């Protein structure tokens, strides 16, 4: 049986892609009704000043990357007394864009949603009605990086081996990853190597754990996956890391610092899975400045620095016009990558 292609998702997936753009309207309505009471109670009980009462919106279910970010930020704000009352609200669905729709309707500034490349990926791939441009960027905080890995016993021992095999036969290597962002990384590498992205073999997985199993059971040959998901398997000896998708080598243990970037290996790909915080469009300039000050205080604390190290994150602060331009550039870049995938 031939492997599924990046342009040929399973039938149930194609159906889901076709319907998500319209279904999201109904889902957003349900979510807004379900969360409205929470925001009303929060406002009545604690006021709407960002220092006295703050809601951190995680536009995903508990346990994922966005949820982890917000709960780590919540703990930092509480521990250091930066905010009097801070709660995390999970608003999952449609690649995070339902959370965007909820945030866009909040009348008060004391709501911060985490978002980033995942939102842009969803809105480009699915054509969702809610877009990251509907809310107000406050500050980019950090970046997460993908690493390229293979099974420990794989004959592929370097990115040169991957390049040679892939360029000779684009369908010869089965790639996998834990989400749409990982597929973007693969596509960017393919374009850099001159491999037709529409002819590659990509096996989508539901999260990093499933992608790892695809490697270990021989279903897939290579993964582009999040560092926090994949690297523990490298440490255990089950996987071999070939490179990190970052501008510079990562800091950490000697083993982490020894991982070469793709650019060092002649593959100029540095796409990152970044995390930024967004406020409702109702937020004033003064509100945004206060939120930026609050975030700046949080990321300087020992607790947050420990969080960054524990999760293999890298601090990447940005705000203002620079951040606005960055989001536009990322939107253009991701749109181009999806066009190359034939989606």
UniProtKB/TrEMBL annotation:
<dbReference type="InterPro" id="IPR042100">
    <property type="entry name" value="Bug_dom1"/>
</dbReference>
<dbReference type="Pfam" id="PF03401">
    <property type="entry name" value="TctC"/>
</dbReference>
<feature type="transmembrane region" description="Helical">
    <location>
        <begin position="20"/>
        <end position="41"/>
    </location>
</feature>
<keyword id="KW-1133">Transmembrane helix</keyword>
<protein>
    <recommendedName>
        <fullName>Secreted protein</fullName>
    </recommendedName>
</protein>
<dbReference type="InterPro" id="IPR005064">
    <property type="entry name" value="BUG"/>
</dbReference>
<comment type="similarity">
    <text>Belongs to the UPF0065 (bug) family.</text>
</comment>
<keyword id="KW-0472">Membrane</keyword>
<keyword id="KW-0812">Transmembrane</keyword>
